[in-house]
Design brief:
single chain, 8% helix, mainly beta, 6-stranded parallel β-sheet, globular, 165 residues, 7-stranded mixed β-sheet, 18 strands
Length: 165
């Protein structure tokens, strides 16, 4: 750990063995559910400046790389209805959707994962991508909004180009 993360709210934080936290990140617990949980598996890396907003559950698997500046949330933070926002009302519990990042995934710098997203095993999310839907195992997601590339992390770029000629 380069330094302790900035933790607010009642979020429970579970870190596996050999987890590396680089620089300062923040983990904030929402007030919708009691005891929201942030779990990180073994040998995972979290870069500096990441923001995790947890109302219920964010789970990071083993051997995951999360580059600096990523934002991951299982809820929107505020209700859509402007009157409820003005009144300081929290989001409805049904609008909270846990986020899961499976083993060996890699999130590029500044990636944003929105509520309810699952990043599959070995998947890659490109820098600054905004992920609104699940990314299947081994797939590559880039852009805003995030879209899947036709090749996977298991194919070399050269092989894919030859097959499409």
């Amino acid at each position: 750990m380069d330094s302790l993360p900035y933790i607010t709210g009642t979020v429970k934080v579970y870190l596996g063995d050999d987890v590396r936290l680089s620089g300062v990140s923040s983990i904030s617990g929402g007030r919708i559910f009691p005891e929201p949980e942030f779990r990180v598996g073994n040998r995972s890396f979290i870069g500096s400046g990441c923001v995790f907003s947890v109302a219920k559950s964010i789970t990071v698997g083993d051997d995951v790389l999360i580059a600096g500046g990523c934002s991951i949330s299982d809820y929107s933070g505020h209700p859509l209805d402007p009157e409820k926002r003005i009144a300081g009302v929290q989001v409805d519990p049904e609008d909270v959707r846990p986020v899961r990042i499976e083993n060996k995934a890699w999130l590029g710098r500044g990636a944003t994962l929105l509520p309810g997203v699952t990043i599959g095993e070995g998947a890659v999310v490109g820098a600054a991508a905004v992920v609104t839907k699940d990314v299947p195992p081994g797939c590559i997601c880039v852009g805003n909004p995030g879209r899947l590339l036709s090749r996977t992390v298991y194919e070399t770029k050269h092989k894919h180009m030859v097959e499409n000629i």
